[in-house]
Amino acid sequence: LEATFEREARAARVRAAREARETYEREGVAVVRGVVSPLWVALLRDGCEEAQDEASESAQYLNKPTDAGVYFTDLELARRLPRFAAFALHGPCAAIAAGVTGSRTVRYLYDQLFVKERHVSVATPWHQDGGYWRVRGDDLCSVFVPLDDVAAADSLAFVPGTHRWALHNPAHFADGTPYSGTSLPALPAIDDSNARTFALRPGDALVFSSRIVHGGRGNWGRALSTRWAGDDVRFWSRPGEGAVPTGALWLRDGQALADNPSAFPLAWDEEEHQGAAATL
């Protein structure tokens, strides 16, 4: 399988750079179609059940008690569940992140599972991912992998161009209260009149900047969002309430993530993959 994964990753890198980078740079979000193989999709679908059965302390059910559907989320699955670790380090998402950011190396930050079923009445609050993170830089992105068909009306919604904004204070998804002590400004009221949504199928990847504002009422089913750090990303010893990745990371403010490879493993190296391509 190693050679297969290598070919898939290199193909994803090329396609992301060719098909999505210009849109990503202009709007902050882009789709790369058909780059996650059916093998990975099946593995992750099985993982959705495992993740809910073995939920961490970070897991939340965000749906209302009266909703007929479930809104479940959990963080950092690859730290404890082997199938998610395999996808993080051998799947195509790091290569996609490299393709849209132009980075020669990409490190894994963490993953987050979302199960947002039909008949959930709760909206996903407008937010920027980067406001929750303990890293900063321009080459930060999420790669969102749908595991079910998603109509455009059920997609996450993105406000194009907001990836050029500064970071704003995050809020708790459960109750909307702002994080305390972060020193970040409050997110202004969002005009979503030109928000972008996307019809997606299993196998597609939705890649977006850590700064783009997104949220909305869409109920997209099962999806895994993976988070990636490219060339310019450094540790951020940010003040205030909680952030991810969690735990003691043993890095100083501004320090390279490569100095703690166990917490931030290398998932894409352009030189290494070029060398592998020559031997396949």
Structure, described:
The chain has helices spanning 2-27, 38-53, 82-90, 93-101, 270-279, and strands spanning 29-32, 60-61, 71-75, 105-116, 124-127, 135-136, 140-146, 157-158, 205-209, 214-216, 221-229, 234-235, 266-269. It is α+β, with helices and mostly antiparallel strands and 280 residues long. The strands form three sheets. Strands 1, 2, 3, 4, 7, 9, 11 and 13 form an eight-stranded antiparallel beta sheet that branches. A three-stranded antiparallel beta sheet has the order 5-10-8, with no helix packed on it. Strands 6-12 form a two-stranded antiparallel ribbon. The longest helix has 26 residues, at 2-27.
Structural class comes to alpha+beta
> How many DSSP E strands?
13
Q: Please, what is the average pLDDT?
A: 94
**Count of DSSP-assigned helices:** 5
Rounded to an integer in angstroms, the radius of gyration calculated over CA atoms is: 18 Å
Overall spatial form: globular
The percent of residues in helical segments reads 25-40%
Largest sheet: 8 strands, antiparallel
Low-confidence runs of at least 5 consecutive residues: none
Percent of residues in beta strands: 15-25%
Spatial gap, N to C terminus: 12 Å
Order of helices and strands: HEHEEHHEEEEEEEEEEH
